[in-house]
Amino acid sequence: MRKLYLIIILILSITTTLQSPSAYAHTNNSEGYSLIEVNDNHINYELKVDLTELGHAINLEMGQQQLFDTKIVQDYVNSRIELYADSVKVEGTLEASDVETINDKQFAVMNLKYQLEDKPEKLVLDYNMFLDDSDPSHANYATVKLDGGQQEGVLSFESRELEIGEVSFVQTATQFLLLGLEHIFTGYDHILFVISLLFGAKTIKNNFTLVTAFTIAHSITLILATLDIVQLPGRLVEATIALSIIYVALINIFNPDSKQQPWLAFAFGLIHGFGFAGILSEMRLDGSHLATSLLSFNIGIEIGQLIIVAIVFPILLWLKKLTVKPATWVIPGASVAILAFGLVWFIERAF
Q: Which DSSP string corresponds to 249-289?
């Protein structure tokens, strides 16, 4: 009877998940990347944005041919991106365009050139791509090179302006800490994996060792991937993350009395670290900004993870202490739902 109950829940969960677009991880948040290099008499701007989102913004079904319609694309970019060199606005000319696949998504790659009379001492970027017309959740990860220095920033609905040479250590640290928080709270696959681990934590000590093992592991691979020391294909990483959810959920369903082992959290944490590094690796961080950005980003992830643990684990302890013992059904039932999400994500990412 119990197995029949779980099978029914599994079927219903899979059906609901397949019908709901919001079930997929990392959706509804289009991304962009900017590499801006300031030279003596011109600025080179390599802009990468989601190809489909660009089509939505300019009301065209985007493809290779449409992307080479320089007039339409150039006018839209210049209307949404404003560059001020020493307080003087400059406009870009679309020199070349292409389509590139990043993390299994198609991106429009546009190379713009801004002609200058003299090399500026100060550069201000006002970024409004997609934010007001198609995707308010859009974020662009910008890298700017000026006078041998490099500066990174995250452009979003709340933070649209970047002043080159003006950002302090505190501002950089705060910005990437918030980015880490946002990444963990919008990474639903990571959240479900952590919750699944907590289902198998029998004591506070066991919970601490699991979380610590997972944290150490994903911090290692986050650093290695960001420094481009070790790289894995994005599709492989995302599919394996889904498998980690499936594996832990199955343990919670068919062996609910077992205690999750730290080695398991560590092993899967190594894979999750590559997933966390996806954004930072595209930003081409280097120099002194790398240490600040990487450390702040990782701290943001850890703070978000601790918040999740602080909310979920006390609830689980409370459920297990109740006389009625609802955890007998709550944890296996929730694990079935988590399993359904993992299966859908694996199919979506692997095939």
A: HHHHHH-TTSPPPHHHHHHHHHHHHHHHTHHHHHTT--HHH
Vertex 298 angle, CA 156 and 201, to 5°: 120
Spatial CB neighbours of 185, under 8 Å, sequence gap ≥ 6: 191, 304
Which residues are CB-neighbours of 324 under 8 A, at least 6 positions away? none
Summary mean pLDDT of the chain: 83
List of residues 6+ apart from 33 with CB closer than 8 A:
47, 48, 102, 107, 140, 141, 142, 282, 283
Residue 278 CB neighbour total at 10 angstroms:
20
pLDDT beyond 60 at 16: no
Residues 220-246 have pLDDT tens digits of 999 999 888 998 998 999 999 999 999
Which of 27-36, 76-85, 231-240 comes out lowest in average pLDDT? Answer: 27-36
Q: What is the DSSP letter of 229?
A: S
CB 176 within 8 A of CB 297: yes
* CB 210 within 8 Å of CB 260: yes
The alpha carbons of the chain give a radius of gyration, in whole angstroms, of: 23
Give, in order, the Cα–Cα distances in Å from 74 to each of 24, 25, 70, 112, 131.
32, 32, 5, 9, 17
Q: Which residues contact 333 (CB under 8 A, 6 or more apart)?
A: 6, 9
CB atoms within 10 A of CB 102: 16
DSSP state of 230: S
Tally of CB atoms within 10 A around 104: 11
Claim: this prediction has a pTM higher than 0.85: no
Residue 217 confidence (pLDDT)? 95
Q: How far is CA 215 from CA 128, 212, 300, in A?
A: 35, 5, 12
The whole-angstrom separation of Cα 90 and Cα 116 is 8
Start-end of H helices in 91-203: 169-186, 188-199
Rounded Cα–Cα distance for residues 290 and 296 (Å): 10
* Residue 194 burial class via C-beta count within 10 angstroms: exposed 0-12, middle 13-18, buried 19 and up: buried
257-307 residue pLDDT tens:
777 789 999 999 999 999 998 877 666 565 556 788 889 999 999 999 999
